[in-house]
Design goal:
Length: about 110
């Protein structure tokens, strides 16, 4: 049985910094894979990049990892983000934010 879900995936950069590379892979994978920003880099603060109907995942594989980096290759990793919490499983948005008070970055699945 094929339980593949084809989704539109958006990343909303609200971090205050420009993102130059972005890698997104299944949490069970040992490989980050390709930079998904590619020619669209950098993703400036306040910008959203949307991949329309290009993201495929399975209902039994909803944990994903994200790695972002700035122009100096300072990287931040978000591990085991649960895509099943998205309001619409075919339209997933991941909002990236930075909190100066706690000096921490957050990725929120919506």
């Amino acid at each position: 049985e094929d339980d593949a879900i084809v989704a539109t995936l958006a990343f909303d950069n609200q971090t205050g910094v420009s993102i130059y590379t972005m890698k997104f892979s299944g949490a069970q994978s040992d490989d980050w894979g390709e930079d998904i920003l590619g020619e669209f880099a950098p993703l400036e603060d306040g910008e959203i990049i949307t991949f329309h109907d290009k993201f495929v995942y399975h209902a039994d594989n909803v944990l994903w990892d994200l790695k972002i980096a700035d122009e100096n290759d300072n990287a931040i990793e978000f591990r085991e983000m649960d895509l099943s919490v998205a309001a619409d499983p075919q339209n997933i948005s991941i909002v990236l934010t930075y909190d100066a008070e706690s000096d921490s970055f957050t990725a929120t699945v919506q």
